[in-house]
Amino acid sequence: MINTVNLTIPKKKTIALIAHDNKKEAMLEWVRVNRDRLAAHTLCGTGTTARLIAEQTSLPVLAYNSGPLGGDQQIGARIAEGKVDFVIFFWDPLTAQPHDPDVKALLRIALVYDIPIANNPATADFMIRSPLMEEPYTRPVQNFAASTQERARAFSAAADGDKQ
Predict the structure, then answer these.
(1) What is the DSSP string of 59-90?
(2) How far apart are CA 120 and CA 107, in angstroms?
(3) What is the torsion angle, in degrees rounded to the nearest 10, for the CA atoms of residue 95, residue 38, residue 31 and residue 117?
(4) Which of 18, 20, 73, 76 is nearest to 44 (CA)?
(5) What is the pLDDT of residues 123-144, one digit of tens each?
(6) Measuring CA to CA, how many Å separate 138 from each of 5, 7, 9?
């Protein structure tokens, strides 16, 4: 049985905005259309994407490093710390990315922590207009500390059995 803990995404969400080079214009257009909705939340993003959004929309956006310089990993760490609640990541599936392992790690950590993530404008539109954006949302997530302790106990018991 998987041990879970309930985590809550607050009404005011911290939203990470990320876009690969070929998707930056699509991200900027999406942010312009959804500016008023986004203004109700705390925004962050990777390098150039964060800077462009801040400059072109006047929205405050906390900028992390660019993706290839560790920005994807920084946002993944914030997800694991409970400091990013929602991700809009317009990634380019048709262009090889030098930091592809980092992109996959970010997507994986968002799934592990059950964080809403949109990878294209249509999904982002559905998510940003959801009634759930206006209220806290609680979801069960695997309690990794308890799971680790259970695995350690099972390993120890198995090792003790081998000694007998």
Answers:
(1) --EEEE--GGGTHHHHHHHHHHTT---EEEEE
(2) 14
(3) 20
(4) 18
(5) 999 999 999 999 999 998 888 7
(6) 10, 6, 6
The residue written with tokens 């609680």 in the block is 138
> Which pair of tokens denotes residue 35?
């500016």
Cα–Cα distance for residue pair 161/153, rounded to 1 Å: 12
Burial class (CB in 10 A: 0-12, 13-18, 19+), 155: exposed
**Which helix or strand (DSSP H or E) is residue 18 part of?**
strand 14-19
Per-residue pLDDT for the chain (164 aa), expressed as one digit of tens each?
A: 578 889 999 999 999 999 999 999 999 999 999 999 999 999 999 999 999 999 999 999 999 998 888 899 999 999 999 999 999 999 887 777 777 788 889 999 999 999 999 999 999 999 999 999 999 999 988 887 766 667 677 777 777 776 66
Residue-level length of the chain: 164
What radius of gyration, in Å, describes the C-alpha atoms of the chain? 19
Of the candidates 36, 72, 114, 162, the residue annotated as catalytic is 72
Helix, strand, or coil (residue 2): coil
C-alpha 19/C-alpha 16 separation (Å) is: 10
Question: 86: how many CB neighbours lie within 10 A of its CB?
Answer: 24
To the query of whether residue 92 is one of the catalytic residues in this protein, the response is no
